[in-house]
Amino acid sequence: MTSGSASPLSSSALLARLPSTRLMLAFDVSARHLNLVRAAEELGITQGALSRQIRALEDHLGVRLFERHARGLRFTQEGELLYDFTRRGFETLGAGIGRLTLRAERQTLVLSVARSFALRVLIPRLAGFTEAHPHIHLSLDIHRYFADIASSGVDVSVRLGGGDWPDCRALRLTRDCIVPVCTSAIREQLRDPAARPRVPLLRNIERDDASLRVEGLDELPHGDQRIDFNDSASMLAAAEASLGVAISRSSLVADAESIGRLVRATSWEARDGLDYYAVCTERAYCKPAVKAFLDWVEGVAPAWPARS
User: Fold this and answer.
1) What is 11-103's CATH number?
2) Among 3.30.10.20, 3.40.190.10, 3.30.43.10, 3.20.20.410, what is the CATH number of 178-264?
3) Which of 49, 60, 238, 262 is most buried per CB count within 10 Å?
4) What are φ and ψ of residue 287, in 5° steps?
5) Highest mean pLDDT among 15-29, 93-107, 115-129, 203-217
6) d(Cα 81, Cα 49) in Å, to the nearest integer?
7) Residue 170: count of CB within 10 angstroms of its CB
8) Ranges of each domain in the chain
9) H helices of 122-162, where?
């Protein structure tokens, strides 16, 4: 050890210098309220007992932490500095205990997800969540129609919409456009005006408004050859099998485009104001498993298809 350098305190010496947790908690609550009456009510003690604890802490530290006024408390410079440390310390401690508690309790998280979004966006990325939260048991409710999250027992619903669901929290996951996609082989056929009418247009009849948007585009097929589907996942599987041109939401085809399985049939695209959202009720949001899922989604969603 270099001459003149201070040796680090041992754990026992450090603990001997620290005030008791009871005094630190009394200070933290008082600092948060800056009012002894409200702080005492939160702690479940009398105002006199709280005042004695604050004085004991000030005596221990050798500094004044508050100035007392008729309207309540006011920080001294030392008190404001200490509150910055206690606030962060208790937040860190609370987060750590919360994580331990969450891991100790096996929880079930029920997700209602549209089949197309589940198969083409969520499930390929879901391993990141299950690896980070092995204590949470996932139950996926895959449907073409969205469940009523207020009465169905679903915790989080990933649904398409404009982001406005009364009495719910909604986290936007994508920023979608309507796009025409096909395989490279089909795109070559589209370049031949004689062959173009023979290329089927693939439609999701549940979202036929998307197909109607492209009726005036000369680059796309407009003959009698059409194949209808009742969900987007089946329609896109058909497009990947070179059955025709599919009109899709951009988030559902971004992965296939990135590896060349699908390409844009034309450069045309349009916004319809609808995006995928993770939606939950305020009551469900109080569940640790729901918060864990939404925190994970919020962290990874910026890298998801069509998010920017």
Assistant:
1) 1.10.10.10
2) 3.40.190.10
3) 262
4) -75, 130
5) 115-129
6) 24
7) 17
8) 11-103, 105-175+274-300, 178-264
9) 127-132
Read off the pLDDT of residues 108-164 as tens digits, 9 standing for 90 and up: 899 999 899 999 999 999 999 999 998 899 999 887 666 667 667 899 999 899 988
**226-248 per-position pLDDT tens digit:** 899 988 999 999 999 999 999 99
Paired tokens of 93: 């401690």
Considering the domain delimited by 105-175+274-300, tell me its CATH architecture.
Answer: 3-Layer(aba) Sandwich (3.40)
CA–CA gap between residue 109 and residue 129 (Å, rounded): 12
Residues in contact with 220: Cβ distance below 8 Å, sequence separation at least 6, in sequence order: 180, 190, 196, 201, 214, 245, 265, 266
**Helix/strand/coil for 8:** coil
- Answer for the pair 162, 122: CB distance below 8 angstroms, yes or no: no
Contact 163, 172 (CB under 8 A): yes
pTM beyond 0.70: no
Question: Which residue type is seen at 168?
Answer: C
Q: Which residues of 102-125 are buried (b: 16+ CB within 10 A; e: fewer)?
A: beeeebebbbbbbebbbbbbbeee
